[in-house]
Amino acid sequence: EVVPVIGKGIECTADNIIRDDWATMHEKLGKLKPAFRKPQGTITAATSSALTDGASCVLLMSEKKAKELGYPTDVTLKSCVFTAIDPFPQLLLAPALGWDKALQ
Questions:
Q1: For the segment 79-92, what is each residue's pLDDT rounded down to a tens digit?
Q2: Is 2 exposed, middle or buried (0-12, 13-18, 19+ CB in 10 A)?
Q3: Residue 88 three-state SS
Q4: What is the rounded CA–CA span in Å between residue 98 and residue 7?
Q5: Helix, strand, or coil here: 33?
Q6: CA angle 28, 33, 38 (to 5 degrees)
Q7: Would you say residue 13 has pLDDT above 90?
Q8: Cβ neighbours around 91 below 10 Å, total
Q9: Is 70 left (phi over 0), alpha (psi -120 to 50) or beta?
Q10: In whole angstroms, what separates CA 64 from the centre of its chain?
């Protein structure tokens, strides 16, 4: 869910991952230089993951506290795991390494 956020005179009310002008931007985006030296030289501003380039927030509390404050209890946290790896060999792979642990 995208919740409107206002800060420093800027208002964000929608996800901007999908661009309406993608077809016209294709040529320009193809000319962007990679952000990393080889062998990791395939990530550019156009191909980077929008999931890690933005910001997010999680409000976590007990069901009792949520009800006390009048918040809905739509989600239950069943599992949690932390993983980390060297970012150069496989950037963004750490979350995938945690799936099996979280599902056990």
A1: 888 887 777 666 66
A2: exposed
A3: coil
A4: 34
A5: coil
A6: 150
A7: no
A8: 16
A9: left
A10: 29
pLDDT in tens, 33-88: 777 666 656 677 676 666 555 556 678 888 899 999 998 888 888 888 888 777 76
Q: Would you state the structure tokens that stand for residue 45, as one six-digit string?
A: 């501003």
Q: CB atoms < 10 A from the CB of 97, how many?
A: 13
Nearest to 49 by CA among 104, 2, 93, 89: 93
Residue 77 structure tokens: 């946290």
CA distance 59 to 1: 13
**DSSP bridge partners of 5:** 12
In whole angstroms, give the CA distance from residue 54 to residue 48: 11
